[in-house]
Write a structure and sequence with these properties.
The chain has 255 residues and is α+β, with helices and mostly antiparallel strands. Helices cover 47% and strands 17% of the residues. Strand 3 and strand 4 form a beta hairpin. Helix 3 packs parallel to helix 5 and helix 8 packs antiparallel against helix 12.
């Protein structure tokens, strides 16, 4: 099954049961995570998975394209020929199916991989990350971001607890983000969001002229129907969302 291929320890039936138990316990804001783009996956199979998820009536859905990370077991198996990755064109079709299918069923897209029933049920933590709002992370591996300084805690649970007991800092590292780094992250993160980049806010925050800085790229991607500049915002179209990382990289190269 798909879950077994992804080395998940639960079954589809257990997932369905868990959602039901959560509802019975009184939870009224439930989110589900799905992965698509698996080897051999068809549009029909993915539509069935999406419908199963929709039938559970969650408030939020995250649908991620399968990626092969360096060093991961799946990546090793792929390189050793144990399976063939789904072609990029087929993955693109599944992405388009995802956005259209969920929109028709009351889950409009608000970020490349995220869909919700309303603005109130969008992921609050993610929205904070996407606008560089300050946050404090507690626990092993947790990240914090305060006044332009990003830090992360030690990964080991035992080492984390030992530092707590001995009244030592739990951070394992930190970096202070410079203006150009914040600008690059803002472009990358906001282009992934359906709302896009609010041009006036961007210009005020970084003291730049948006259209002067990115003019050639704006013209290019608007002509390719990948980008829209309207109502004070620069945003990717659904077609553009499919190439969000590549488009964002070209914008970042202009900074």
């Amino acid at each position: 099954s798909s879950l077994a291929f992804l080395s998940r320890i639960h079954s589809a039936a257990q997932a369905v049961q868990t959602v039901g138990e959560a509802r019975s316990a009184g939870f009224d804001n439930i989110g589900l995570d799905l992965i698509y783009g698996l080897p051999g996956q068809s549009v029909r199979q993915w539509r069935m998975d999406l419908q199963t998820a929709v039938d559970l009536r969650p408030e939020h859905l995250s649908c991620y394209m399968l990626t092969y990370e360096p060093g991961a077991r799946l990546t090793r198996d792929l390189k050793e020929g144990r399976f063939k990755a789904l072609p990029e064109g087929a993955v693109a079709v599944l992405y388009d199916v995802t956005a259209g299918y969920l929109a028709e069923r009351g889950f409009p897209q608000y970020e490349v991989s995220n869909f919700s029933t309303s603005t109130a049920t969008r992921s609050r933590p993610n929205q904070k990350y996407w606008i560089h709002a300050p946050y404090i992370g507690l626990g092993p591996s947790a990240h914090s971001f305060v006044e332009g300084r990003r830090s992360w805690n030690i990964r080991s649970v035992d080492a984390y607890l030992q530092r707590i007991r001995s009244n030592q800092p739990t951070a394992d590292g930190a970096e202070c983000l410079e203006r150009h780094q914040l600008m690059m992250e803002t472009v990358y993160l906001r282009l992934r969001c359906v709302d896009g980049i609010h041009i006036a806010i961007f210009e005020d925050r970084f003291d730049v002229d948006f259209k002067t800085l990115f003019g050639p790229l704006l013209n290019e991607y608007v002509s390719l129907s990948c980008l829209e500049v309207a109502n004070g915002c620069c945003r990717l179209t659904r077609r553009g969302m499919l190439f969000s990382d590549g488009i964002a990289s070209r914008f970042i190269d202009m900074i």
